[in-house]
Design a protein that fits this description.
2 copies of one chain form a homodimer. Chain A has 369 residues and is an alpha/beta fold. Chain A folds into 3 domains: 46 residues, lambda repressor-like DNA-binding domains (434 Repressor (Amino-terminal Domain)); 139 residues, Rossmann fold (3-Layer(aba) Sandwich), CATH 3.40.50.2300; 142 residues, Rossmann fold (3-Layer(aba) Sandwich). A 6-stranded parallel sheet of chain A has the order 2-1-3-4-5-11, sandwiched between helices. A 6-stranded mixed sheet of chain A has the order 7-6-8-9-10-12, with helices on both faces. In chain A, helix 10 links the parallel strand 8 and strand 9. The longest helix of chain A is centred in the middle third of the chain and has 16 residues. The radius of gyration of chain A is 28 Å and the shape is elongated. Chains A and B meet through helix 4, helix 5, strand 2, helix 6 and helix 9 of A and helix 4, helix 5, strand 2, helix 6 and helix 9 of B. The structure holds a DNA duplex (30 and 30 nucleotides).
Chain lengths: 369, 369
DNA sequence: ACGCATTAGTAACGCGCGTAACCTAACTCA
DNA sequence: TGAGTTAGGTTACGCGCGTTACTAATGCGT
């Protein structure tokens, strides 16, 4: 690469590295004037003619501002950092999309760093993957991001490294175990209620539930919502119809089999108060995938004999199952966007709506109910 | 926010914004010395004692280098830009992971920008999504990235915007329609061959093929590889066993149904030279998902009656189908890593291996063959 | 004719850092 | 003894830009 001679006055088109000075020379004004024009400064009196000359120079020379220099001089960066484990678990990747779009709209830029352990450098003291996370955040802070977004793949409590607290931070799809940082999470309860209401509206009164690990926030919330909806319809959750399983297709298959094979149910019984359930609420789509197999194997049809409703809207599954799965969507994109808005408020010193903001989970009607 | 008074000599711990100068003052040396020590400059003679004092100051004050200032002064940035549409299509997201890890190992940082159109700003002239892509690249160049990676969700030819050519650029999972830029793509042909060889090794000689849109590079390559493998076994591709379909589960279901219901095949016929195929090579996993349904509906078992092999290794599908799907994996992570290595060579002015580098697609044995 | 505002700019400084050039005291060695 | 070398630093400059002073020319009311 040719070494650039400093102090070169020739305003020639040095295709790489056109600076504001070059623009100023070309337009025959001072660099200050260029700066004023380009940053659209209202209080500076610059004639329209000069302004036009400058824009032309920018165009001709192909000037592109240097973001780093700008940040250095202005002490502001217009960048947010997004740190996440999502990259390995693509399923929540829409958080990134939502955040990017929202940031973009605000003329800001998102620096993304992933926290998972590759075979990367072990770091100065050979730390584990926790050290990797710290390192990622450190890198982001070195870029002088104005705030941090922390996104998780699944809704849970998180221990945020202390360095993240040096700068405004918002958690997305997770919450601070210490309860100090603002967070954005899905409204699991409302989602569970919505799914149940949908089944009730279709006339189902005996609803089997394929539950997740009962301890995680998603399970707690969704089940709670389900119970509420049933209660409003004057029904109660029959514990015999709730089966917990591994959060996989196999787990769903096993759980659905258990429910369907429960003794004492006639093959074609319609949901009386004691019959076989006529609908299955699977607390995630993967388990619904397994449940489909269990149902089909028994010669039953969906939704004719048994309606199925899922949760998560894992597109790759829900939209491709046959019949397509009706499910409640996790609002990843909205959470990402809200995260950015919240962060923007925070960095601007404005108050935020609440410490924990819930985002609605919409129902996606497809063909399984 | 309190305005920082300039020229403050007090080396007090201003928790935010500790500079190299503060470190120098605390350690009682000049800033230059600090710089030399921190950048590990070999030619500078600094005593171990001074060195230790400086490290201690760094520790105590919590100094964190300012990446922007560093880039400004050194005229190098250690950042690569990754522009991609992947964010909406999570399925290829491992490209990002592979690239991040590799960059990290090289002590470099990846700035990621997505090109897809959100409801974001329409831009100065209200362009479409092509303008959005340009804008993303522009943003990256403003950060003075040293090189650009361009990643696609599916293997195809791409028209790269001209601004991307201002800086070394490598394409991942796609190639330059104009044939000018280096690219990294999966070796579809070898993958197709490998899948076919696996089926042949299991004794299958009549193999049904569920094809993609026959024009895309993936279909062309995979089919070519299949043909090669058959030829080596002294077999020929029976055109009657190849059905193209929509690249969805429904498409796979329809195509598989067509093949299985072809007249003249006994229900249990084993693969003679004219019998029903005993194996199905689905050119992607989504179609395999549909094929499963078609097979099961006909009372046939997998892999007992019909073996199925897929392509893509779309985890969410392949690992959760029942039985789990044996498939050929697209080497996203490796492509990402190789992309970074190639870019590193390019920016260092070193020659690169080839204009188009093929990455092997490994076979993942699960339970469907 | 003079003071005063307004218009249209410019000079100069500093952001945090890398780096070439320079400096000084102590140590060698003929 | 004095010239050269080395160890251990420091001074000074500039990267590209935002921003605060300042200036110089013009218009305008009295």
């Amino acid at each position: 690469m040719a070494k650039r001679s400093p102090n070169t006055k020739s305003a020639a088109v040095r295709s790489r590295g056109v600076t504001m000075n070059d623009v100023a020379n070309y337009a025959g004004v001072s660099r200050t004037t260029v700066s004023f024009v380009l940053s659209n400064r209202a209080t500076a009196n610059i004639s329209d003619e000069t302004r036009a000359r400058i824009f032309e120079a920018v165009q001709v020379l192909g000037y592109r501002p240097n973001a780093g220099a700008r940040a250095l001089a202005s002490q502001r960066s217009d960048w947010y950092g997004l740190v996440t484990e999502i990259v390995t678990a693509p399923f929540a990747v829409n958080i990134i999309k939502g955040a990017q779009d929202e940031a973009w709209r605000d003329r800001r830029f998102l620096l993304i760093a992933s926290t998972e352990q590759g075979a990367g450098t072990p770091g100065p003291a050979g730390q584990g993957s926790k050290g990797m996370e710290d390192a990622a955040i450190e890198k982001l802070l070195e870029q002088r991001v104005e705030g941090l977004l922390y996104a998780a793949t699944w809704h849970r409590g998180i221990d945020i490294p202390d360095i993240a607290r040096e700068v405004p931070t918002v958690l997305i799809n997770c919450f601070d175990s210490k309860g100090e940082l603002p967070s954005i999470v899905p409204d699991e309860r409302a989602g569970g209620r919505r799914a149940t209401e949908r089944l009730l509206a279709a006339g189902h009164t005996r609803i089997g539930i394929i539950n997740l690990d009962p301890d995680i926030p998603a399970a707690v919330g969704r089940l709670e919502g389900c119970r509420e909806a049933l209660a409003e319809a004057g029904l109660e959750l029959d514990p015999g119809l709730v089966v917990s399983g591994h959060a996989t297709a196999d787990g769903g298959y096993a759980a659905a089999s258990t429910i369907l094979d429960r003794a004492g149910w006639g093959k074609r019984s319609v949901g009386g108060s004691k019959g076989r359930p006529t609908a299955l609420f699977c607390l995630n789509d993967r388990m619904a995938m397994g449940a489909y197999d269990a149902i089909k194997e028994r010669g039953l049809t969906i939704p004719g004999d048994i309606a199925v409703i899922g949760f998560d809207n894992q597109e790759l599954i829900a939209a491709y199952l046959r019949p397509k799965l009706t499910t409640v969507a996790l609002p990843f994109e909205q959470m990402g966007a809200l995260g950015v808005r919240t962060l923007a408020a925070l960095t601007a010193g404005q108050p935020i709506a609440a410490d924990q903001q819930l985002v609605d989970c919409p129902l996606l009607e497809r063909s399984s109910v």
